[in-house]
Amino acid sequence: MAPGPFAGNSATNFHSIDFTVHDHNDPLHRQHLEPGARPMVGPLCCSPEWLSASSCPLTCSTTSRLFPPLQRRRLHTLQVNLGYRCNQSCSHCHVNAGPWRTEAMAEAQIEQVLGVLAHPTIETLDLTGGAPELHPRFRSLVGRARALGRKVIDRCNLTILLEPGQEDLAAFLADQAVHVVASLPCTEAERVNQQRGDGVFERSIAALQRLNHLGYGDPTGPLRLDLVYNPSGANLPPAQAGLEAHYREALARDYGLRFNRLLTITNMPIERFARDLAHRDALEAYLEQLQQAHRAENLEAVMCRGLISVNWKGELFDCDFNQQLGLPLGGRHRHLSDLLDQVGDLEGESIRVATHCFGCTAGHGSSCGGALS
Hints:
This protein is α/β, with parallel strands linked by helices. It has helices at residues 48-51, 107-117, 138-147, 169-175, 189-196, 200-213, 240-255, 271-279, 283-292, 320-324, 336-339, 358-361, and strands at residues 77-81, 124-128, 151-156, 179-183, 225-229, 261-264, 307-310, 316-317. The longest helix is centred in the middle third of the chain and has 16 residues, at 240-255.
């Protein structure tokens, strides 16, 4: 495996950077580095060993601003990561998903998910990955969740609908009235293929046409199809409404496509995207941009107030990003088995926050449901 961006000779002089002492609990310190990689500067600097120490010796001054405290409200959404296997490997992916990943949720945890969904306050099962559709229990889980009367969201990369063995997947989603949230980071083939892989744009368009044929995206029908935009680099998304109008016009004109909403999502400075920024000496500037663009009014609508994220092992987190940073729900280890008896007791609990949370409150805000303001 190739060494990480700070292995060997690097343009970054690790020892010349001006560091200040910072809280070692900041989740941006926890990153999964490639073997042989040196610790990254700033929010990527700390190794797991340093995280367990009483103090962390390294952090950059741009990470010193504290994110405001947050408390939970009523839990209404269970977001479940079924595993990291994916038929794509995208440059912005914050879970490092790819075809080589083998992690997948076990049968026992699938049953516990269904047990939690039986609680009357849970309204939505939000399935993600990797490509969640590749999990062998995906269809069974969806069907049983729908039988419980729960709304199901499938965070779909679109190309999975064209994979061998998945030819009937789109029809299954339609039969179950699954809300499809589909990634399409641009309306231009070159930019999408650059970010997500050769031929991904063309296959995504074909998949959208298949969904449209089944009734998805019809504003008068029950089958919801939302598209997801994320910037191709270290920039904040533009205003969601204006970009949605552009998407609607371009996709209808060029491909005869329709959809319900466009969701704009900020790229989080963690994992694969953060490593790329650090390699280009752009990480510091991006973190500063997020902090400077913080808007306090977005705090009211951040997704972590009413959502719990579950990883493939059944462990609980305040959000999908905290999950990837290894930061447990409320700062202490909890599992799906604990949630079975605590669904109604979480309101008012403190949410684990730190520097990366500025990615959700910067500019127009960002969440799994798109812009916040």
